[in-house]
Design goal:
The chain has about 400 residues and is mainly β. The protein has strands at about 10, 20-25, 30, 40-45, 50-55, 60, 70, 75, 85-90, 100, 105-110, 110-115, 130-135, 135-140, 145, 150, 160-165, 175, 180, 185, 195, 200-205, 205-210, 210-215, 220-225, 230, 235, 240, 250, 255-260, 265, 270, 300, 305-310, 350-355, 360-365, 375, 385, 395, 405. The chain starts with 7 loop residues before the first strand and ends with a strand.
Length: about 400
C-alpha cells in the first residue's frame, strides 16, 4: 500500500446559493440539507424537552451576533464526506457560539466545523467563542474548531470551548475525539479550551495548532479538574503571552490530569514559564524513567507532520497502557508508526502539481507510473475527490468546488 503524500494548494471558485431557510426563536425537529443554508436571523433556542437534529450537509449561517442556545438536546450528525458548518459571512462581528446551558441528556456533534464564533457581554457569555458547556455534557467527534475568539470585555476564556461542571464522578460523559482546534484565541486562559471544575472528561486523538491566549494555556487551561484524560493528542505552535504553559496550564488545587502518548512541539510562553506545560517536565533534561533525549525523526515537523519515520527512536519505545499498538510495544508520541504505509513513499520532488494556486483544473505529473490512489480533502478532512485509476500524467477538474485550502 502506498503512502499518500500531502501538500497544500489553493483554488479560487465562486458558487451560487440554491436554497435558503431563515430561522430564529425556538427550534426543534430536523434541519436537512435540502433546505440549507439555514440563515440565523435572531437568537436560537432549543427548549428543554425538545430535540433538534441537524443532518449532514447543512450550513448554519449566522446573519448577526446571535447565540445558539441548547437547553434541550442537539444532534448535529455530519459524515466524513458531508460536514455540518456553523459559520458566518461577517467574520469581524462573528456569532455567539453554541451554548449548552443545563441541557438535557448528552448532545452529539460529529463532523461539524465551528468557526468565527465570538464572545461578548457578561459571564457566561464572555467565555467560549465557539461552544460553551455550562453544567452540560456532549460527545464531540471529528469536528473542527477554527478562528473562534473569546475576548469579550477583556475577560473571555476558552477561545473555542468553555466547559464548567461537566462530567460525573462515576465516569466520563463529555468526550472530544479526533477534533482539530486551529487558530482560536482568548483574552484570558485557554486559547482553545478552558475547563473549570470538570470531572472525567476525555480528549483523544485531537490536534491543537496555533491557538493563543494572554494569560496561560495557549491550547488548554485547567482549573480544579478531576481525572481529565488526554490521549494521542498533538500540541503544536500554541502560545501564551503573559503567563505560563504555552500548551497546557493548570490553576487551583487538586488537579488530576492524565497525559498518555501526546506530542508537543513549538509551544511557547513568551513572558512566562513552561514553553509546553507548566508542570514538571521540559523539552530537555527530563528526569525520571522511560525518557529518551534523541531526535524523534518526525516526517516533516516544519509542515506539522509529526508522524514517525521508520528509523525513529520513538518506535516501540512507549509503555503498554492498554491501547492497541503496532509492533513489539507502543510508540512514543501521538501517532503510531505503521510500517505498511511507507512502501515507495512519495516525496514532493517525485511529482509536480500545476498551476498552484488554480482557478479550475490542475495537472499532476508523477515520476513513476505505479501510483495506486490519490485523494483530495478539505480542511475539515472531508474527501472531495478520490481516484484509484491513476495515470502518470493526470488532469483533475476542481471547478465545482469552493475556493480555499485543500490537502492532496
Amino acid at each position: 500500500m502506498k503512502k499518500l503524500s500531502t501538500l497544500l494548494f489553493l483554488i479560487a471558485i465562486s458558487t451560487g446559493i440554491i436554497a435558503q431557510t431563515q430561522v430564529s426563536g425556538n427550534q426543534s425537529g430536523t434541519w436537512n440539507a435540502a433546505n440549507s443554508p439555514y440563515q440565523v436571523i435572531g437568537e436560537i433556542i432549543i427548549p428543554s424537552g425538545q430535540i433538534l437534529t441537524i443532518e449532514a450537509g447543512v450550513e448554519v449561517n449566522f446573519q448577526g451576533h446571535y447565540k445558539f442556545t441548547v437547553q434541550g438536546n442537539l444532534q448535529a450528525l455530519g459524515t466524513e464526506t458531508d460536514s455540518i458548518f456553523f459559520t458566518t459571512d461577517n467574520q469581524a462581528t462573528g456569532w455567539g457560539g453554541i451554548r449548552f446551558d443545563g441541557s438535557d441528556g448528552i448532545s452529539n456533534l460529529s463532523y461539524c466545523r465551528i468557526e468565527f464564533g465570538k464572545t461578548s457581554g457578561a459571564y457566561p457569555d464572555n467565555h467560549g467563542g465557539g461552544m460553551a458547556l455550562l453544567a452540560s455534557d456532549a460527545v464531540v467527534s471529528n469536528c473542527v474548531f477554527a478562528d473562534n475568539d473569546a475576548t469579550g470585555g477583556d475577560t473571555g476564556m476558552g477561545g473555542a470551548v468553555y466547559a464548567i461542571n461537566t462530567g460525573s464522578s462515576s465516569g466520563p460523559l463529555t468526550f472530544f475525539t479526533n477534533c482539530k482546534f486551529l487558530r482560536n484565541h482568548c483574552y484570558g486562559e485557554g486559547g482553545a479550551i478552558k475547563f473549570t471544575s470538570d470531572m472525567n472528561t476525555e480528549i483523544s486523538g485531537c490536534e491543537f495548532i496555533e491557538n493563543t491566549c494572554n494569560y496561560g494555556g495557549g491550547a488548554i487551561s485547567f482549573y480544579s479538574v478531576i481525572d481529565t484524560k488526554m490521549i494521542f493528542c498533538l500540541f503544536a505552535d500554541n502560545y501564551t503571552m503573559y503567563s505560563s504553559g504555552g500548551a497546557i496550564h493548570t490553576l487551583g488545587v487538586g488537579n488530576t490530569l492524565i497525559f498518555e502518548q501526546c506530542t508537543m512541539s513549538g509551544n511557547s510562553a513568551v513572558t512566562g514559564d513552561g514553553g509546553a506545560v507548566n508542570l514538571v517536565f521540559s523539552p530537555s533534561g527530563a528526569t525520571g524513567s522511560n525518557n529518551i533525549n534523541e531526535n524523534p525523526q518526525f516526517a516533516n515537523p516544519g509542515m506539522l507532520d509529526f508522524h514517525l519515520t521508520e528509523t525513529s527512536p520513538c518506535i516501540d519505545a512507549g509503555i503498554d497502557i492498554g491501547y492497541e499498538y503496532i509492533g513489539e510495544a507502543p510508540d512514543m508520541g501521538c501517532y503510531e508508526f505503521d510500517q505498511y504505509l511507507i512502501t515507495n513513499e512519495y516525496q514532493p520532488n517525485d511529482f509536480k502539481i500545476s498551476p498552484n494556486p488554480t482557478t479550475g483544473k490542475i495537472n499532476l505529473e508523477f515520476a513513476e507510473d505505479n501510483i495506486q490512489q490519490i485523494r483530495i480533502s478539505d480542511l475539515t478532512g472531508k474527501t472531495i475527490i478520490e481516484k484509484s485509476e491513476i495515470q502518470q500524467n493526470q488532469t483533475i477538474d476542481l471547478s465545482g468546488f469552493e475556493s480555499g485550502v485543500y490537502f492532496f
